[in-house]
Design goal:
The strands form three sheets. The chain has a five-stranded parallel sheet, sandwiched between helices. The protein has a three-stranded antiparallel sheet with strand order 7-9-10. The chain is globular. By secondary structure, the protein is an alpha/beta fold. Helices cover about 40% and strands about 20% of the residues. Pantoate (PAF) binds near residues 19, 20, 21, 129 and 148.
Length: about 280
Amino acid sequence: MQRLALRWRREGKRVGFVPTMGYLHDGHMSLVRRARQLAGKQGIVVASIYVNPTQFAPTEDLSAYPRDLARDKSLCRDAGVDVLFFPSDAEMYPGRNSGGYSTYVVEKRLALGMEGNSRPTHFGGVTTVVAKLFNLVLPDVAIFGAKDWQQAAVIRRMTRDLNFPLKVVVAPTRRESDGLAMSSRNKYLNPNERKQATILSRALKLAKEVVTATRKPINADLLKKRLTALVATQPAARLDYVEFFDGQTLQSAEAVTRGTHMALAVFVGKTRLIDNAELR
Ligand code: PAF
């Protein structure tokens, strides 16, 4: 992969990169379309599929994570991906289980709250694998989905702090017609849970309505209580967190106004889903 990327660099080709964990859906395909726009017709679009073990805690769904490489390959081909990179664990982390791999990249600020609270080892795995993928693919631009808002902020910060010579672009969340954000993990939901999973986008909608109904700042704790009660109306749903913050700095907000960002994580049955939006 890196040899190919170095050749493209010598040839002056622009490279757009979409890192994924596979089991692709229309959200991923919109990132691929964005990569093509940004790389240009003469440029190269690379997608990667790698279910990165270092971003999963031992209690999480690494082995159950949905995979369908044959389908993913065909979707990528149809979407005009030039190169699909799907390395193995042995290639990405040679000797990891026997002490042969020991270098990790950790962002120490933006990675701390929200997802970092609930999944303390998660972002260290994400930044490590994304740094490695950046070094392998050598992209000019890398595209990430806004559904993982905190992830995108952490990666943007890592890119800046470690001087990766590329631009990080965040593309909008794609949603099903009933509002559920597209995610590979939606596959885990049974029909009853699938219906209740719309509670995440309904919570965002309620927060937007509350915020736009008044010009006064709203107490974040009061709004959290209202949203917690809303989530509790769904028997299969359990709120992990709901947070209000500045969309750029991720600094927590005590008063919620138009433009404040909201993120939430909810277990629906055993499936943990996340969503976020700017409240306006
Ligand atoms: O968002 C994802 O799919 C993953 O976290 C990423 C960025 C591909 C790293 O494994």
